[in-house]
Amino acid sequence: WVIANLGHLTGEHAPGHTDPEETLRVAHHLLLSHGWAVRELRSEVRGARAGIVVNIVPPRPATESPEDLDAARRFDGSFTRWYLDPIYRGSYPPDAVSDRIKDGHFKNTEISFVLDGDMEAICTEIDFLGINYYNPVTVRSGPGGKPELVRTVPEDQLTEMGWEVCPEALYEVLVRVQNDYNPEQLFITENGAAFPDDPDNNGRVHDIRRVDYFREHLKQGHRAIADGVKLAGYFAWSLMDNFEWAHGYTKRFGLFRVEFDSQKRYPKDSAYYFRNTVQNNAVQI
């Protein structure tokens, strides 16, 4: 979703295009390349375990009105089911296809770029599914019924990316994916938060909000395991402050602070918390 939509629909990321049909072509060929790659890996490496990572942002309707409920359905269809349905069911979700035709995203009102054998390749069996989760969104019905995002929490409760912090939604995502698609294994492949966390006079970064973020999300992962989700691993985003797409070096997600001019790096409090969690194989509450 990130590569296809932010690079080819909104133009936020490279290559900066704003073409709806091109966006869907890119998404399709990313999925197709995945399916081909899984087959090649297995043909070359005996016992190879292969999977794919998707980005999931769960929608919540702004109200219980039929219009807002339908906006949430449309968002889910284009953001989550557009990728997971082909991977696990071998087809694009019919309601989401109808939405895109209605919105004029396809020329000649059909998916002309799907060739014979494509969906079978995309649906090649995988050993695990990775989920990148950061936040939910609240949506309402906009012009033409298109989903519009609504901010429902105060700005000072958002991350520097403008994202709501909601650990409970991670639990909801994990349970939903397990129930709807039944992956053999699940991994949380990205989870983290960008906060403005400068060092004190002694060079320590007391990033309490990030420590809380990891603690609460790890607890929700444990809750999901207890309820039958096949969650096999968790990866924090990220080890170090990094180059964050079009945001450059302005958004700091790292467990380790990086002084970009000198390349000096030193652990934040969240690094110590995460280290202890891994060493103890337990979430410290």
Could you give the order of the helices and strands?
Answer: HHEEHHHEEEHEHEEEH
Adjacency order of strands in the biggest sheet: 1-3-6-7
Structural class: alpha/beta
Give Rg in angstroms: 20 Å
The helix content is: 40-55%
Bin the strand percentage.
5-15%
Oligomer: single chain
- What's the overall average pLDDT, rounded? 95
Q: What is the tally of helical segments? A: 8
Q: What's the count of strands?
A: 9
Main sheet makeup? 4 strands, parallel
Pick out the low-confidence regions.
none
Distance between the termini: 34 Å
SSE topology:
Blueprint: H1 2-8, H2 20-44, E1 51-55, E2 59-61, H3 66-89, H4 94-102, H5 118-122, E3 128-132, E4 137-141, E5 147-150, H6 167-181, E6 186-190, H7 208-226, E7 231-234, E8 256-259, E9 264-267, H8 269-280
Parallel strand pairs: 1-3, 2-4, 3-6, 6-7
Antiparallel strand pairs: 4-5, 8-9
Helix pairs in contact: 1-2, 6-7, 7-8
Concise account of the structure shown:
The chain has 285 residues and is α/β, with parallel strands linked by helices. 41% of the residues lie in helices and 14% in strands.
